[in-house]
Amino acid sequence: MESIFHEKQEGSLCAQHCLNNLLQGEYFSPVELSSIAHQLDEEERMRMAEGGVTSEDYRTFLQQPSGNMDDSGFFSIQVISNALKVWGLELILFNSPEYQRLRIDPINERSFICNYKEHWFTVRKLGKQWFNLNSLLTGPELISDTYLALFLAQLQQEGYSIFVVKGDLPDCEADQLLQMIKVQQMHRPKLIGEELAQLKEQSVLKADLERVLEAADGAGILDEDEDDLQRALAISRQEIDMEDEEADLRRAIQLSMQGSSRSMSQDSPQTSSTSLTSEELRKRREAYFEKQHQQQEVDRPRQLSSARERPTTSSGELGNSQAGDAVSEDILRAAGTMSLENTKDNLKAEGKK
User: Is residue 119 annotated as a catalytic residue, yes or no?
Assistant: First the structure.
């Protein structure tokens, strides 16, 4: 298929593409076809002038645009016919009464030129196979022998004018190559407009897919952010619970101290006999501080992690604040414990009375 010459549509130059695809080469250009059209226009003007250059018909003819070409690149059947005469080729209308009387099987012809609404294209036999060389297709379309007559009949029903090309076509590489081999076509070529529409659709689908993937990535990021937020909230709740526990402890210690002071004021005569010795108080303080030290060793990694996450204004201020709070809490808890112990001893003493 690569050896087949196939010009694709450019503008409205279908007549040029039709001729070059028929002849299998770049034989004609728009300039050459325009020259043929101007020559035809001049011949028509000279015939009209024979009736008098002052006649109404002649003046009307001069005011009308050319019937052989226009600015878009369209060329008439007369231009195509005259261009083929250079190669000794002739066009005969396929569905004319004269041709129908001959009852020639289309498969025995060599090529056809088809026209509908100012569009021209070629159907030609190369080697032993037929090809639709329409310039609106993305490539040559293989037509089987059995389908050829049906294809031409379908074109006629659609309003196409079909011309048989009579004469010997110039030799071409594709014809020589396809005389020896036959080609197979797995997929029929699409119209150029359909291919562009398909490419556009694929581009739109690709853009939609990228947006969906971006949205999915965004959702994943949102999920990660949400997880971080949930973890932060959990840590915050733990800190609040700890602060609440510490507040409850302070209140209990204060109440215990108040209760101890009331008990000591009421039973002042017996206090000296039931109070702990200094050695016992020292041992209990040491045991309490040892327990506090162990608890601090357990809690230190969490406190360090929390300190890294929280913004700080001054490392010195933070250190002093934390140290001061720790000392205050230790003293407060020690005093509370001592007060609780004293209260218990006082209660025991009262019970013995």
Answer: yes
Domain ranges of the chain: 14-194
Among residues 74, 185, 195, the alpha carbon closest in space to that of 137 is found at 195
d(CA 124, CA 20): 12
Q: Which of 21, 132, 134, 346 is catalytic?
A: 134
The whole-number average pLDDT for the span 226-231 is 65
Strand spans (E) along the chain: 90-93, 111-116, 119-126, 129-132, 141-143, 161-166
Query: Which of 20, 21, 68, 119 does the annotation list as catalytic?
Result: 119
Residues sharing a CB contact under 8 Å with residue 181, sequence separation 6 or more, in sequence order: 127
If you ran DSSP here, which 8-state letter would residue 77 be given? H
207-210 contacts at long range (C-beta below 8 A, 24 or more positions apart): none
CATH number of 14-194: 3.90.70.40
> Tell me: the pLDDT tens digits for 176-215?
999 999 988 888 888 887 756 666 666 666 666 777 677 6
- Cβ–Cβ contacts within 10 Å for residue 178, how many? 20
Residue whose structure tokens are 């009308």: 64
49, 114 contact by CB (below 8 A):
no
Decide if 134 is catalytic.
Answer: yes
Model confidence pLDDT, tens digit, residues 298-317: 666 665 555 455 544 444 44
Distance CA 213, CA 220 (A): 10
- Which of the pair, 91 or 314, is modelled with greater confidence? 91
Tell me which of 14, 18, 20, 132 is the catalytic residue.
14
Tell me if residue 18 is catalytic.
no
Instruction: Taking each helix axis as running N to C, give the angle between helix 30-49 and helix 56-63, from 0 to 180 degrees, rounded to the nearest 10.
Output: 170
**21-25, 71-75, 241-245, 259-263, range with the lowest pLDDT:** 259-263
Q: Is 1 helix (H, G, I), strand (E, B) or coil?
A: coil
